[in-house]
Amino acid sequence: MPRCYIALGGNVGDVETAFQTALAGLTADNPVVVTRVSSICRTRPVGPRSGGEFLNAAAEIETPLEPLQLLDVLQEFERRAGREAGKIWAPRPLDLDLIFYADRVIEHPRLTVPHPACWYRRFVLDPLAEIAADVRHPVKGSSVRELQARLLARPLRIGLAGSSASERERLRRELTPISDELRIVDWLPKRNPDPEPAILAWLGPGSDSEVPIEFDALPVRPRLDVSQAVDPAVFLRGVVQSALG
Predict the structure, then answer these.
(1) Quick one: pLDDT at residue 187?
(2) Cβ neighbours for 241, distance < 8 A, ≥ 6 positions apart
(3) SS (H, E, C) 110-154
(4) I need a surface site. Which of 4, 36, 100, 216 has the fewest CB within 10 A?
(5) pLDDT for the residue 191
(6) Domain parsing of the chain, residue ranges
(7) What number of other Cβ atoms are within 10 A of residue 43's Cβ?
(8) Residue ranges in the chain modelled with pLDDT below 50
């Protein structure tokens, strides 16, 4: 059966009991076997409206369910726990996110696998590394352990690529005060002998002749497309907070 990994989170009510209830229900009501569960970690909320401290964990499961069938099951347990659909970065009693489905890459209107943000979120990677350290991200080409280690280095280097020099400078000024453990750099390949940053934020086609025009020209492992964000500063603030842990 396919081996899958899910991330669990919540910060409203008795979250530990919600985790236990969901995992027990998965095996009782569905063709799902829970094979490993991480310890529970406490994490800082991300975003101004997320509420208080979160609890997070990860679980390894085996199931013959197809990805969308599994998504339906996970969302049903979220609904039973009182989760309201459609609210982003809001307090919630239970989150169940499908991180990996074997080594498959899935792009569907309802589901993207691997989870598109898992590689830069410490609250996902830290518990996942306990139970799946050697599992490889099929898009980024790195193991969970390697992805986690990139975020543990200090200072945490965030590269800004594309757009204009003035826009990159504006974002640098807005993001730098988040933490003294953070370093925001312009990423211009011909000028950067340094190792690639932990996250390389692509802001869209650039007016600087030395900046690659295409997102696909950037190194795969750290690249993150920010060009469609309504407010790049707000989006990147959440990314940085998630990465710092």
Answers:
(1) 86
(2) 44, 46, 47, 178
(3) CEEECCCCHHHCHHHHHHHHHHHCCCECCCCCCEHHHHHHHHHCC
(4) 216
(5) 59
(6) 3-150, 153-244
(7) 19
(8) none
